[in-house]
Amino acid sequence: MIQTAIVGGGPAGAYCACCLTENDIYPVIFDHTHPREKPCGGLISPLAQKVFPLLKELPIERNERNRIHLIPPSGKPLSISFRKSKLLCFSRLKLDRFLVNMAVNKGAELIREKVLALERKGNLWKVKTSRRPYIVKTLIGADGVNSLVRRSIIGPLRKVDKGICYGYFVGGLEKEDMTIRFLFHGMGYIWVFPRVGHTSLGIGFAETSRCYGLKRQLDMFIEQHYPCVEKISRWTALIPNLKDVKTFRIPLAGPNWMLIGDAAGHVNPIIGEGILYALLDAKLAAQAVVENNPQLFDRLWRETYGWSLFRDIRLMKWIYKKPVFEFYCKYLKFRSLIQP
Description:
Helix content is 30%, strand content 28%. It is α/β, with parallel strands linked by helices and 340 residues long.
């Protein structure tokens, strides 16, 4: 029998495994895909670096900038500069690979099998993979926005609580500034995040039901601003984007299970930041396991940063109005210097 199993080997799952091994608990990670290049920006905020200094010390290539340009739907562009810290941008393949390898090197086990189904067996779980079933005592779902663990226990995230992204990995923009351009109509944005060797250039929209023409809008932006860019590959992905704080009334933990990271819906609904919350969830979930009380996780994440997620969900529909946008930019700069 497996004492603790984590489904998903992204930052939330891999870092949770690392935290557990530091407490002499050696979990099993089920993941048949990681590490892999993830279709996202890969931006690490100064706040994430302050909360998790490990991110500044990782021995992997990154692009660094001390400012970011935020362009509102109307009005002049605003720039946020950081004097004592920098924005980091990683390839998610390299970041995720490092975290998974760190967990394995500390004693976690990585089983490269796809989890196909879950079944309650009294106080235990029967985890069925593409090869065989496993019996698990405590189950942690870190398997993304379409989480099988979430779907099997409390039901999937509603369609309205998912956003969609479309984008390219491109060459030739590695010296560009980091930029987020908020869309004129609808709740969304275009980002330009230079990495080492390529740049993540994408568009995100808060509502999957209103995403018609997303590709065309991004292509027009590229033609206007970067007509000579080299498109290396393209991708489409769903992301959590909660619209109602009532969604968080649903428990994210039980006597022998927890949901963390994207599976929990823990992504900033305005700017799409997810890595900070993934690592916070990982640390708090590990604490709950160490204390032999998985349900403790629900209280821990709400007390640690729940208020900031709730606030940004309420603020999201106002953020595209010029006065509010300028205030929010100032708040983002302040937020980068404090812990949640």
